[in-house]
Design goal:
globular, 26 strands, binds methylmalonyl-coenzyme A, alpha/beta, 31% helix, Rossmann fold, 492 residues, GMP Synthetase, Chain A, domain 3, five-stranded antiparallel sheet
């Protein structure tokens, strides 16, 4: 007897239609959420969650969000610390094709205002008391609504070009742009990191980085879900308790910014050795890792940190090898599928499936960011004979403190709003712990205590942007054309 295979799908010819990455992020995560549903996938705040529970929570929440009117392509802003609720929201958005817009939890209202106007979200999910222009949804209310919803997967057809998230480059008015990252961008990144850093189900992953940035979200959360390993998530990194967490959880995999690694150098030699014994891979990024930290870390923990290079617009681009030499001070080679070249001026230009779709509602800025199809990163680099990239500066004025980007112009404009401040210049001061910290030079028209300026900054700006020192000068150094010469301002 011949067995007949019935083709149940209706076929049609849709010429010109692009079928892009129909195995979208949701499908990629299903290897864990469905495939390993009885396994414990997550530990948070002393509770364990199986992948099946995480999937069910996200399905129920997705149904609750649909009930509140969210649809494919809508934006949802999220201003939350790392938590299970934040993961629920992200996965629900992924399932619905709703665009997830995380906001740095350290931002103040002033810094969020531009993002809320620009992204035009349906709502902002937060438990903070904020006076903002969009509806606020409380996580506790959403969870209560979700709890009575069915655990049924939303039926939304998505392809790989669907935007999954918008990551804002900063909160500044005018200059802050939302980088639109698609399902394909995130998927290409996760698949690359799994392959290149050998991330497996057997890993135990300690995630301490904030989920509102690409490092914690695109690398952290995605590598966890795509690999099906067990992840312990912390609300935040706390150096005082970090040694205990390492010893208790015994991770094999850890992602950090250089500030975190500087903190880990304070562990005793015995503790560091023990941690080094069960750890498999330490990865560093978001800011340059000083070669001295790399060396000291190796001496103490017996591991060479793997440094890599990424951006919000591109997720990961260039990485030191897992096998092979991890060279201090360099970021290694372009990841598979990614091409990198240096422009005439030494700027890193990139092509690949990881490159974002463009800036949200900014066609001009998007056009400017590309040259002949290559994304211009704004980062300057050199390449060694054997192909290792070394970053050596930025085209624009940027300070990186503890892995957070600071645009000096934003702080300068803020300071100049004070009636007594006639001029302000913010520059980077090297800092052993944070890499760099901002320092402000101000010219005043009338006497004002610098403590007053500091308090103002503390009230209105994210803590990492508050200048660590205010230096009063008569006037700022300018050249004959009147252009500010920041290089003449001492920072030590
Ligand atoms: C920092 N602070 C926080 C938090 N993080 N406060 C509350 N919650 C947080 N999650 C503030 C504190 O208010 C304090 O400000 C200052 O940071 C330092 O706090 P401390 O306890 O001394 O922390 P630390 O040991 O110095 O460590 C800081 C940190 C933080 C935890 C490493 O800098 C951090 O989370 N960095 C990660 C940033 C990140 O994920 N960047 C990725 C973006 P004050 O001193 O004023 O009181 S770049 C990216 O995504 C690209 C793609 C890439 O390549 O990765």
């Amino acid at each position: 007897m011949t067995r007949r295979i019935r083709n149940t799908g209706k076929s049609s010819i849709a010429r010109g239609r692009v079928y892009s990455g129909r195995l979208n992020l949701s499908d990629l995560f299903d290897s864990s959420l469905v495939g390993r549903r009885r396994q414990v996938g997550l530990e948070f705040n002393g509770r364990e969650y199986t992948f099946g529970e995480i999937d069910a929570r996200a399905n129920r929440l997705a149904n609750a969000l649909t009930g509140r009117g969210l649809n494919l392509g809508d934006r949802l802003c999220v201003y939350l610390a790392n938590s299970v609720e934040m993961i629920d929201l992200y996965l629900a958005c992924v399932k619905l094709g709703v665009i997830f817009v995380p906001i740095n939890i350290l931002y103040r209202e002033r810094e969020m205002a531009h993002i809320l106007t620009d992204a035009e979200p349906v709502a902002l999910v937060t438990d903070a008391d904020l006076a903002v222009s969009v509806p606020i949804w409380r996580p506790a209310e959403l969870s209560a609504e979700a709890a009575v919803m069915p655990n049924v997967r939303p039926r939304v057809q998505l392809d790989g070009d669907t935007p999954a998230g918008i990551i804002y480059t900063s909160g500044t008015t005018g200059t802050s742009k939302g980088a639109v990252l698609t399902h394909n961008n995130f998927a290409a990144n996760a698949v690359n990191l799994l392959a290149c850093w050998e991330i497996r189900e057997a890993d135990r992953f300690l995630l301490v980085l904030p989920l509102f940035h690409v490092h914690g979200l695109g690398n952290g959360l995605h590598c966890w879900l795509a690999s099906g390993c067990r992840m312990r998530l912390l609300a935040r990194f706390e150096h005082q308790t970090a040694a205990d967490v390492f010893l208790e959880f015994q991770p094999t995999l850890f992602f950090g910014v250089p500030t975190v690694y500087v903190r880990l150098l304070a562990f005793s030699a015995a503790v560091a050795r023990e941690i080094g014994g069960f750890m498999r891979l330490f990865v560093s990024g978001s800011a340059p890792l000083p070669a001295q930290v790399f060396d000291e870390f190796e001496t103490l923990f017996g591991h060479r940190i793997l440094e890599r290079y990424g951006m919000s617009e591109t997720i990961m681009n260039i990485s030191n090898p897992y096998w092979g030499e991890r060279r201090a001070g360099t970021v290694g080679f372009p990841l598979p599928g990614i091409s990198a070249k240096l422009s005439e001026t030494g700027e890193v230009c990139l092509k690949g499936p990881n490159i974002f779709a463009g800036y949200w509602r900014r066609p001009e800025a998007t056009r400017d960011a590309f040259a002949d199809g290559w994304f211009r990163t704004g980062d300057l680099a050199t390449v060694s004979e054997d192909g290792y990239f070394t970053l050596c500066g930025r085209k624009s004025d940027l300070i990186i403190s503890g892995g957070f980007n600071i645009y000096p112009r934003e702080i300068e404009e803020f300071l100049q709003e004070h009636p007594a401040v006639t001029e302000a210049a913010v520059v980077a001061r090297p800092d052993k712990m944070r890499g760099e910290v901002p320092v402000a030079y101000v010219a005043l028209s009338e006497a004002v205590e610098t403590a007053v300026l500091e308090t103002l900054c503390r009230e209105k700006l994210a803590s990492f942007k508050v200048p660590r020192e205010f230096i009063v000068v008569e006037k700022l150094p300018r050249n004959a054309m009147g252009k500010l010469q920041k290089n003449l301002l001492g920072t030590t």
